[in-house]
Amino acid sequence: MATELYDLTVPVFLRGFKAMAAFLEKARAHADANGIAHDDLLTARLYDDMAPLTSQIQRASDAAKFAAARLAGIEAPAMPDTEASFDELQARIAATVDFLNSVPRESIDGREDADVELKTPSRSFQFKGRGYLLGFALPNFYFHATTAYGILRHKGVPLGKMDYLGGI
What we know:
Blueprint (H helix, E strand, L loop, with lengths): L9 H24 L4 H5 L10 H20 L13 H17 L2 H4 L6 E5 L4 E5 H26 L6 H5 L3
Antiparallel strand pairs: 1-2
């Protein structure tokens, strides 16, 4: 039995966002219990030239919503990247989850060989659906989810591997 492209996208992203939402809540609780300003976690970076926690969640959101939209041939919702609190990051995750849940399975399945173009300010990349998902979109999503997790661990939030995996 073949795996459908939808099964490699929406459910995977939904599970990742469930885990991210939970570890953000643990981070908030840890900060509150230990007198740590929320901003100390929200603006934390693993290295000076890396984006802070807020941006990592925003980029994971972008990776997921654009993957689903590009594969389905639909528009992704605009999100302005202004989140600066745990509540706003949770709202961003919820909005992304709502969008993902709105994408019909039949709009993604069968698009393994569809042309996908990724435009950046400086260049354009051409992919086929499967290659885009497996070689770019999923690695990009996991990079930002892992970096967000790593930032919080580095700042002392008591997270473990099962938190990252979503408590399977």
